[in-house]
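USER: I would love a firmer grasp of how sequence relates to backbone shape in proteins. This is the protein in question:
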Amino acid sequence: MSISEQITKDITAAMKAREELKLSTLRMMKTAIKNKEIEKRSALDDKEALQVLSTMIKQRKDSIEQFTKGGRKELADKEAAEITIIEAYMPKAVGEEEITAAVRATIAEMGSPTMKDMGTVMKNTMAKFAGARVDGKVVSEAVKRELAGK
């Protein structure tokens, strides 16, 4: 079952269970995927659908940051709850230890890169996590830390 089909099925279940937040979040997810399909002019495969959901999570994290700065805790909490619902459809996130290990392996493969090679190290490290969900910010920090430690 594709991600889109799973979301549609879960929308029906959320309606029956009268789960308002889950229902609205699922509808948002379905709409975002549908908009991307319209933009692309064909159906999305699961990898592309995951990319759309990943973008939605990133937007929610930015919103939480802004709401917290603005003193709107209730809105930040709502965004955090939406992230939890969206993440249920995503593959398991990669842990920080795994990211650091991959960065070290990439640096070892490249020989002895300097800070100027950070972009290349980032690109090669991200390529290793092709299907998994990885936070680019964490990878960036790990690359900086490892290159500075040389």
Summary: DSSP finds seven helices and no strands in the chain. The radius of gyration is 18 Å. The CA atoms of residues 28 and 148 lie 42 Å apart. The helical segments are 3-17, 20-40, 46-69, 73-87, 96-110, 118-128, 136-148.
